[in-house]
Amino acid sequence: MRRGESGMNPEPSVKANGSGMCLTVQVGGDMDYKTASFFRNRLLEETQGQRCVVLDLSAVSFCDSAGLNVLLMAWRRADQAGAVLALACVPLDLQRVLVMTGMDTVLQVYGTVAEAKNGLVVGGGT
To answer: 0.85 exceeded by the pTM?
Structure first.
């Protein structure tokens, strides 16, 4: 995924919204080696104890292998806890990386947050 053309790296952010049966967590900024520990810690903090989590990645401006590892870690932690985690609103460049690495076969990816919530709830995610 390419960094934004503005030359400025957006601040990393993690914002949770607990409405409905699934927790939605909007992730934003660059997910890279510089911000991986921030995202790892914040995602663990926000998703702990949740049964159904949708990560809204629409505000992710860049993702390298460290960012991919954070997404995989979040999925593993959810899976180990008997919870479900899905990705939604994945930017096109990141979608390509997920396909190239085979992570799209492990992680559930949806076009919108609503589709993800519906897919997880209907699919027995809660």
So the answer is: yes
Residue 1 lies in a domain: no
For residue 46, give its domain range: 13-116
Output Rg (C-alpha) for the chain, integer angstroms: 13
Q: Give the CATH number for residue 60.
A: 3.30.750.24
User: pLDDT tens digit string along 1-20?
Assistant: 445 444 566 899 999 998 77
Total count of domains within the chain: 1
Q: Does residue 101 lie within any of the structural domains?
A: yes
Does the pLDDT value for residue 78 go beyond 80? yes
